[in-house]
């Protein structure tokens, strides 16, 4: 058996190999925010719907949430979420599973989570009895850097 080298075939093979490695998702930056959304769960007589808004009605039990679409070269994403209230809360009711850290002044709750890289970060909160009204924010951080801040008002 005789082996025949074909220069065009070999060149084509290496070009395909090179370009496929360049388009691999591992060439994404560590984290790139594509889109961010904030809103609350709106319950009416007609049903329940998600309402995108920068204002959340003040009602005990009112749910509000955020979502960030992103891309990343990491297999897992560890992010911190800080809820920053305008005044101290007299009643932080957080799941012990989340291992929340509450600031000494009772204005900030910080949680950290690690998730598989699926392109979506999300979180949500519920207004509890004793939570203050006013300008509030949720800060999302990865690797010590703010990747997004959601500013909203609870009124």
Question: What is this structure, in a nutshell?
Answer:
The chain has 155 residues and is mostly beta strands.
Characterise this structure.
The protein is mostly beta strands and 155 residues long. The chain has a single domain (28-154), classed as Macroglobulin (MG2) domain (Immunoglobulin-like), CATH 2.60.40. The chain has one helix at 7-22, and strands at residues 32-44, 47-52, 55-56, 63-71, 76-84, 101-102, 108-116, 120-126, 134-142, 145-154. The strands form 2 sheets. The chain has a 6-stranded mixed β-sheet, with no helix packed on it. The chain has a 4-stranded antiparallel β-sheet with strand order 2-1-4-8, with no helix packed on it. A hairpin with a 5-residue loop joins strand 6 (101-102) and strand 7 (108-116). The longest helix has 16 residues, at 7-22. The radius of gyration is 23 Å and the shape is globular.
CATH architecture: Sandwich
Q: Main sheet: which strands, in order across?
A: 3-10-9-5-7-6
What value does the Rg take, in angstroms?
23 Å
Q: At the first level of CATH, what is the class? A: Mainly Beta
* CATH topology descriptor: Immunoglobulin-like
| Oligomer designation | single chain
Order of helices and strands: HEEEEEEEEEE
Structural class: mainly beta
Count the domains.
1
First-last Cα distance = 83 Å
The major pleated sheet works out as:
6 strands, mixed
User: Can you count the beta strands?
Assistant: 10
Please, what is the average pLDDT? 84
